[in-house]
Amino acid sequence: MKRNLYLSNTPLEEAKALYLQRVAPLIQPQPECIPVIEALGRITTSPIYARCCSPLFNAAAMDGIAVRSADTAAARETAPLSLKRGEDFLVVDTGDPIRPPYDAVIMAEDVTNVDQEHVQITASAAAWQHIRPIGEDIVAGEMLLPRRSVIRPIDIGVLLSGGISKIDVSPAPSVAIIPTGTEIVEPDAELKEGDIIESNSRMFAAMVEELGGIPDRLPILADDYELLKACIQKAVQTHDMVIVNAGSSAGTEDFTVHILRELGEVIVHGVAIKPGKPVILAIVEGKPVIGLPGYPVSAYIGFREFVSPVLRLFTGAPSQDEGLEAEAVISKRLVSSLKHQEYVRVKVGKVGEKLVAAPLARGAGAAMSLVRADGFCIIPRNSEGLEAGEGVQLQLYRSLKEIENTLVAIGSHDLIMDVLADLLPEHFPGVHLSSTHVGSTAGLMALARQEAHLTPTHLLDAATGEYNAPYLRKLFPDTPMVLVKGVERIQGLIVKPGNPLNLQTVQDLCRCKYVNRQRGAGTRVLLDYLLQKEDISPQQIDGYAREAATHMAVAAAVQAGGADCGMGVLSAAKALGLDFIPIAPEEYDFAMPAAYLELPMMQAFLEVLRSQEFKDRLEELGGYGYQRCGEIIPIQ
Amino acid sequence: MKRNLYLSNTPLEEAKALYLQRVAPLIQPQPECIPVIEALGRITTSPIYARCCSPLFNAAAMDGIAVRSADTAAARETAPLSLKRGEDFLVVDTGDPIRPPYDAVIMAEDVTNVDQEHVQITASAAAWQHIRPIGEDIVAGEMLLPRRSVIRPIDIGVLLSGGISKIDVSPAPSVAIIPTGTEIVEPDAELKEGDIIESNSRMFAAMVEELGGIPDRLPILADDYELLKACIQKAVQTHDMVIVNAGSSAGTEDFTVHILRELGEVIVHGVAIKPGKPVILAIVEGKPVIGLPGYPVSAYIGFREFVSPVLRLFTGAPSQDEGLEAEAVISKRLVSSLKHQEYVRVKVGKVGEKLVAAPLARGAGAAMSLVRADGFCIIPRNSEGLEAGEGVQLQLYRSLKEIENTLVAIGSHDLIMDVLADLLPEHFPGVHLSSTHVGSTAGLMALARQEAHLTPTHLLDAATGEYNAPYLRKLFPDTPMVLVKGVERIQGLIVKPGNPLNLQTVQDLCRCKYVNRQRGAGTRVLLDYLLQKEDISPQQIDGYAREAATHMAVAAAVQAGGADCGMGVLSAAKALGLDFIPIAPEEYDFAMPAAYLELPMMQAFLEVLRSQEFKDRLEELGGYGYQRCGEIIPIQ
Q1: Which of B139, B196, B559 sits opposite A552 (nearest CB)?
Q2: Domain A338-404 belongs to what topology?
Q3: What is the distance between the alpha carbons of residues A561 and A515, in angstroms, rounded to a whole number?
């Protein structure tokens, strides 16, 4: 099979316009008539007019008595007026009809019972007082909902009150989702090297559902031209729309575009977006067929940009909520290509008065970046990117209120940050902890730029043997800082189960494949300190230049990534069932400006840090000391 | 049955705290274990950790060839290096595993095919280049989702990739909804005077569904103490929570509180909110039972404030999205009681640089105010209200972007405003028209205060016989204004079918029951002009003081509200099957500052006004002239 090296690089808006303009005339959905009580979330296809008034009649607006207003004119505080039941008044409850000759209601509170048959009033009643006139809320014939309304609970109430029990709504389009690839397996399969768990189709199914469609996820197809062709041919007969995933790129096994050219017309192959470029927009037998890339972030963005608008043509749903727009400053330099519009996922926090957007992993495969993201920062085509501190426009997926109640931690990675992020909102509803892992040094830099509230750090000062404090003195000469003590943890060698190479000391690193941490990470600083003490040069270590970004990534590289050993913490080794050779204790603390101690959410953080539940969780993880946890050390 | 006149007036936060603190210990839901692929919208009960890495192995990040990086060191542009298939390289597609001894990938674009067995490269490859290391996206053991996460499509993808195919989620609580009231009937019933269509229970059911519960709407119960008691007794056995609606107030047939006291404990009866005061918060057999008021707005607010937080105790859902907060100015004076926290529904628009909130109908029965609202303006207890133009904090339910694309019309009412509101977004997606009906004069005042973009108006100048323009000259001496011509319509007498009283002229109003429009309405101005011409005094007309706010409300009063006649337009009479006696033609136009003509959304409005489709809709409605529709008249 030949490669299709040449994808086009059609700009997003052009690709969308080209495709939608071809697809729109093909989509002529027939309205479906359904009971109003089943219409939650459905979308009206025409304006809906009330069939009857609400209230249906002049009705008492209060509990009390119905009277003829003219009869009450003489009533005074000083000259109470007596009224006779059945003749002068009727007892009415809220909502009861008021019929002639009665034309006013007096509230129960303003009526004095005299005997079974008589009451007294001490003020006259104005005509029509405390009466809800017919049609006060809804008048027959008035428009209750315009077309393209998404039905909410209150709409259901109002439609019923207006005499409407059935309405026309858009039909739910059926969408075939075809997962392809010889390497992909069902989630419950026994995994072997080379297998990829099929997950995109399930994400698409949920996205289709959210947009009001009916997903039909077909079985996984191996990479086989004829099989896939037959499957697409059948799917366009039985469904309103088809999604093929993946095989949309230009590799040796990317058949999809050839098949779609054979069966119908490919309108666009390749769009100038990143991630998401290798999208195929096609029409087969009058049905939209879209090929989406396999990387999860590409798949997600391709769906949002191309499948969503097509589904909205079927459902008539109002255009997608692009999220709340907000201004922020970007926390680090972002270089982007002139060729693409890039979607950078960001964590957002409010530090002082400004919103700070910290870019997450940018790879097309970084699905977790979408899970963690608070929003997108979209870098347009023809932009070279952004400088750190530059203002950017964000599309947020969380409310500003939620963001304002989020404590932003940028710094070193430890599993306890996950535990704290879990416990904080449990104990303080609405308060969240967002952690970004960039290593201790980069974290302190972010703190200095006021992009974080705190930095988890474990930096050893080689000169004094002291942890963290010397760095704060050096980096923040003018800001009163504090160090909140965190945990003591043991750094050690993470090795394969049973420690087959019998690695015991730093010297042993010279005879194995090592995986290192990135520059500025506390663990790397510690290694360098130990190597220096033993007079070992980095060149002597195979893999010194291979970098992993977190303890867990180091452990993963040892578990199955071709490395024999890396330095890290016990909890990471334990999480992956690896062995651990202790090397040196260290102090993992939280640095912050003293002023931030006053923030209510920081107080909440400290309370959780000092809680028994946190200590219990540390015991579960193992390998941590917490005698000084939560202690506050002012830095002079 | 005695009245329970005395509801308490417990402040909202106190009532909530009292009740939730009693209910919380009773709610101990057992997690439900479900397949991830069915978990959309469900809520996690514990943090979820990855079971495997993603990728599961070191994988090619590009289509190309896998090589040993050390072997490629000599390759140069000027000295291409030849590599042999199977020995020096393997062809790989994105996602293929990279096994030792291979440790780098060269992109297909950088490889030249020499023959079947050989390729050439012109640059060296760095170790680990274009390889996605094992665990790059997800490392086994890392936290994928904290507890209380609402599962989104992307979460489903990531959970599956992390080896999780089943998760624990909160169970969906079952909620019994008991509609009560001898006067309420099912929506499809044949309606007679005194009937109220039961709609609240269906709104509640949809609200329960949105919050992740399972609603069980029971049949309507007549107001009968023993029946209701038996029903509640059974419901608390079979459901997690019970809602009783209505009978929660203090009328003669409001049994609910007595029954709940007999069966269990009433924690609060009566909360200091408006609408929504007569809420009952009770516990029966360890189950939360809430009595909600019957007025739809009270019912809605009572549900939001009390049922929602109890449901969240079951589901663990994060606290309710209170909507986007925004600053606005209030368009008219709002007097509120010191005793209650009041929820005023508002329409919001952006006029010039400011957001303007126009209060909608405030009655507890005004369900349409909830349908039309863009948000709430909450007036706290102990506040007397707001002055026109005062700044207020809003909770918005639409995005600011949507609000910025909404043309705000405040002024006179005509059915064509509904038609324009329907057509505008059809022709210009994303552009909306919001109309508030306050009459012509009040509309022009709002325009002068820059709270609207345009005012539909039909004000006759008695001195000149000219419509609208004289008022603009007088009210806007310093602002260049324009009048966009709208429609000619006939004002006339709306009378019962067959015109039984044979009403033909303004003189005839002296011998019937009339229903008038509010002060400042163009129709009232016209009536006053006609009365003056005929030398008739308002005192001669029975009902001159009875006011209805719109043409449709006048028609409704004539249809079934005890009035014989009102003045209004043909379309309103037609909508309710009434007869119409033409009296005088008039001009219904749109006033606006000349500067607003430049707004793109105003251009869109003008285009719709001049469209054939709009004219077709006018023909359908009947009684309109549209020769000058869309013409622009500058006002000197």
Answers
A1: B139
A2: Beta-clip (2.40.340)
A3: 9
Determine the residue type at A565. Answer: C
Which CATH class name applies to B32-54+137-169?
Answer: alpha beta
- B612, two tokens: 């054939």
At how many degrees (to 10) do helices B522-534 and B440-448 cross?
130
Class of the domain covering A440-635 = alpha beta
**What's the CA gap between A221 and A185, in Å, rounded?**
10
In whole angstroms, give the CA distance from residue A234 to residue A252. Answer: 25
Can you list the residues of chain B whose pLDDT is less than 70? 1-6, 248-253, 320-323
A50 at B interface, C-beta within 8 A: no
* Distance (Å) of CA B173 to CA B29, B211, B307: 9, 10, 12
ipTM of the complex: 0.90
Q: Give span(s): CATH 3.40.980.10, chain B.
A: 12-28+172-315
Q: Which residues, other chains included, contact B86 with Cβ-Cβ below 8 Å and sequence gap of 6+?
A: none
Residue A566 in contact with residue A495, Cβ under 8 Å? no
Q: What is the pLDDT of residues A546-561, one digit of tens each?
A: 888 888 889 988 987 7
On whether the CB atoms of residues B550 and B417 are closer than 8 A, the answer is no
Q: Indicate the CATH number for domain B12-28+172-315.
A: 3.40.980.10
Closest CA to B211 of B395, B369, B43: B43
- The arrangement of secondary structure in B59-132, i.e. its CATH architecture, is Beta Complex (2.170)
d(CA A332, CA A328): 12
A105, A199, A374, A541: best to mutate for the B interface, most B CBs within 10 A? A199
Q: Which residues of A touch B36 (CB under 8 A)?
A: 187, 202
Are the Cβ atoms of B366 and A137 closer than 8 angstroms?
yes
Which amino acid is located at B331 in the chain? S
Listed in order, the ranges of chain B carrying CATH 3.40.190.290 are 440-635
CA distance B397 to B304: 14
Q: Where in the sequence of chain B do the CATH 3.90.105.10 domains occur?
A: 32-54+137-169
- Candidates 3.40.50.10540, 2.40.340.10, 2.40.110.10, 3.30.1360.20; correct CATH number of B322-403? 2.40.340.10
Instruction: Among B109, B160, B366, select the one facing A187 at the smallest CB separation.
Output: B160
Which of residues 217 through 256 in chain B touch A, CB cutoff 8 A? 249-254
Nearest to A137 among B91, B204, B367 (CB): B367
pLDDT, tens digit, 9 for 90 and up, residues B169-192: 999 999 999 999 888 999 988 888
